[in-house]
Amino acid sequence: MSKQKVTFWIEEGEVGFLKEKFNTDNQSEAIRLAILQSLATGDLEKIKTLFPYIGKKPPRIGREVVNAFEQSGCEIFVDLFCGSLAMLCYLSWDVKVVVNDINGNLTNLYTVIRDSPSDFVSEVMKLPYSEVVFQRLTEDLKSADNMSELNRAVAYFYASFGAYRGRMDNPLFHISTTADTNRAEDYHKSIQWILQLSKRLQNVEILNRDFRKVLKSYNAENVFVYADCLYLGTEDYYENVFSMQDHKDLAEMLKSHKGKFALSSKAKKDLRKLYRSNNHYVLNFEDTYRLPDKRHREQLIFNFEMKHVNKYGDTDIKPYR
Ligand SMILES: C[S@@+](CC[C@H](N)C(=O)[O-])C[C@H]1O[C@@H](n2cnc3c(N)ncnc32)[C@H](O)[C@@H]1O
Predict the structure, then answer these.
(1) For 100-114, what is each residue's pLDDT tens digit?
(2) How far is residue 165's CA from residue 176's CA, in Å, rounded to a whole number?
(3) Which stretch of DSSP H or E encloses residue 47?
(4) Is residue 7 part of a domain?
(5) Nearest-CA residue for atom 14 of ligand 1
């Protein structure tokens, strides 16, 4: 087999990371194996969220939002309450995306991963998966304003990964209690995805604003807004409170949005009062997926009639009145 020489630039930290991942001291071999693995697994365009996050959207919802965006004719996707970046993982890489969250620890983390990936990776790789480190970093985050951006990002990543069920309001260290789980191994595996996420974030706008400010700036016909705010009744699971007034303001602003929107919610009477309109449509997941468990009564509300036929051949988009 003939070989060809290829030359390209790669950061020092990234080389170290690949050598460790493929267990070799040979730089070219590490890079060759990384390329082969990407090609073999089709991972070139795959990204993953970094840690568990309350309210993280599963693929069955993500797919429908992507579907709606593609039908909307809009060019810009604004993820108004981006949380774990789950939606970014479902969208294709050529979509212009803006992500926003009021949680400054989260948006600082994404900004550091976008702009200084190798510094970030080399810092998190130095940390063993340990409750002592978890407690120290969780404590440090209480005065996050005094930390450098890099240290704050490392601490938030570590604490969020280690927190049981991603609950950062009262974080408890997540340990492996079953034979087939190993949190320490999972921690190191999750680091492997950071460079890929960094690549995707290169052309993503990251904002740390209250949703009202973002909606004002992006009120245009070519903007699709995905609003996954805290569901009515679950507001206190998060670090930031979301009041009834916030729900009302959101509804008002979405109703006057010039482009298209999709809102994630659970079927609730109070919500219907805010969004019922002749121009609005709803997709109920319990109909679409015939889910037996009523806890899954999730829905998407749109300001346009998305075309949707479920796997049983029924059209299940209904007016939301
Ligand atoms: C349900 S979570 C979003 C989950 C996300 N879609 C995912 O899949 O990971 C809601 C998010 O809204 C953010 N948030 C709360 N109040 C906000 C506000 N006033 N403006 C912007 N973001 C806010 C929270 O920090 C939280 O990350």
Answers:
(1) 999 999 999 999 999
(2) 13
(3) none
(4) no
(5) 102
